[in-house]
Amino acid sequence: xxxxxxxxxxxxxxxxxGGGGSDVTQVxxxxxxxxGLLLINQQxxxxxxxxxxxxxxxxxxxxxxxxxxxxxxxxVLGYYIYRDVVSxxxxxxxxxxxxxxxxxxxxxxxxxGTQTLTFDDIMTPPPSINDVFFxxxxxxxxxxxxxxxxxxxSITIAQHSIITVAQSGGSxxxxxxxxxxxxxxxxxxxxxxxxxNSSGTTNVEANVTLWSPTLIECEIPYGxxxxxxxxxxxxxxxxxxxxxxxxxxxxxxTTITPAEDWVQNLDITIAGTDFGPDPNxxxxxxxxxxxxxxxLTGDIVSWSTTQIVCKVPAAAQGELVSVIVDVAGxxxxxxxxxxxxxxxxxxxxxxxxxxTLDVLGTNFDTAQGAGSVSLGGVSCAINSWAIGTVxxxxxxSAVDGDVVLTRDDTKVTNGIGYDVVPTITNISPNRRVxxxxxxxxxxxxxxxxxxxxxxxNGGAGVLATVIVSWNPTSIVCEVPVxxxxxxxxxxxxxAAVGSDLDDAxxxxxxxxILTAPDLTNVGQI
Length: 525
Hints:
The chain folds into five domains: about 1-155, Immunoglobulins (Immunoglobulin-like); about 160-240, Immunoglobulin-like (Sandwich); about 250-340, Immunoglobulins (Immunoglobulin-like, Sandwich), CATH 2.60.40.10; about 340-420, Sandwich (Immunoglobulin-like), CATH 2.60.40; about 425-515, Immunoglobulin-like (Sandwich). Helix content is about 0%, strand content about 45%. The protein is mainly beta. The radius of gyration is 49 Å and the shape is rod-shaped. Strands 18, 20, 21, 24, 25 and 26 form a six-stranded mixed beta sheet that branches. Strands 28-35-34-30-31 form a five-stranded mixed beta sheet, with no helix packed on it. A four-stranded antiparallel beta sheet has the order 1-2-3-6, with no helix packed on it. The relative contact order is 0.08.
């Protein structure tokens, strides 16, 4: 029967029942939307009356919007709307004039046919949450006679609320369904769904796919974390109740291949799930760290939600480090990765034995421990050790070969070639007869002769065929037949890095003399 009440009001208007006079003031109203106010569609409906709460841009309730079906009868002058905080009496409105809204003024007839008419009851002071208001209305005919009261409809100034939250999954893009009340029939420009970030702050906006007064569907956004979802309408954020938390899928690493490498070398494949979007695209807060050092965008070879291919970042330091995928603050499980030591360069590529040399590279470790350096397989004395620089002394017995560093954890670097330059410092004695022994003193001769040689009269001179002894600093040989006065050259055969540096020539000549004449028993006078 209540649904027929406004049809009865039309009949009452024609009959002219109820009190009233001919002096009726009509006031036109600017709609709430034109005043910068927003109707959030928190509605109460009964018959042809519809009530909705009006809030300002900050979400504060400011009044109630009343909608009704226009009385399509000739002679309708307008309408009175009555409001109270308790139930209004039905029947004759006489004596209730003080309850009329619009400052007691008639709301004039407008529109055509049975279209919906609207009036915004803006209240001063504004209403508060949980306030309850009761409304009735009357219709006035052309002789200013007022009908009986319409059916009554009440509305509570309520905040929107979340009842339950359900999710289809925990990955980015999965659908979350929010059930609640007073969301409004459509999503307005000031309406949002927010997810918590990894720190628990509810500020990550979600893409909404469905919005209705009691149900919202949205996608889990990039940057979300575990916690309570919030719905913000007109600036007011309401969180889901405790026990309705979102369970976001943090990234998970299953394997890393290979499990060891030095910086900026191989393509490292990280397999797993929920790695999020490519940092070179929309995933600006996503990264991979090796021992706390993040990869740079240039280190990325490829990226998907299940596989990352990248280089070990140049800044990575340490030995056994943890690899972690960070998706907007959501951290994966750590997986161990060995950062191999690597020699990048030497401070010099050639030199004499006894000289010092800087070995430059990455991840040598901060202290030597059981670490070592060799040159051509010969152990070097260590003068200082740091994570990127080790200073060594070129050993006396070293010849050309690779400098190789072994870290404390037994991991071995690449090798870089070093040319040990031999030197001759002295020849003794410096006057000899063919077949007599000469001692050549110097450095870089090597521990054994192997295929090394000594020649007299310079590098292309006469080969000494009799080597008496050979050590890193001294060679003893016989003056060969055919030798003449001149220099001596030692040629070190050691798979040289620079063969032109493997000859050492004496700085002074050896004088080869003839055997002294024997005058014994020569005819005597």
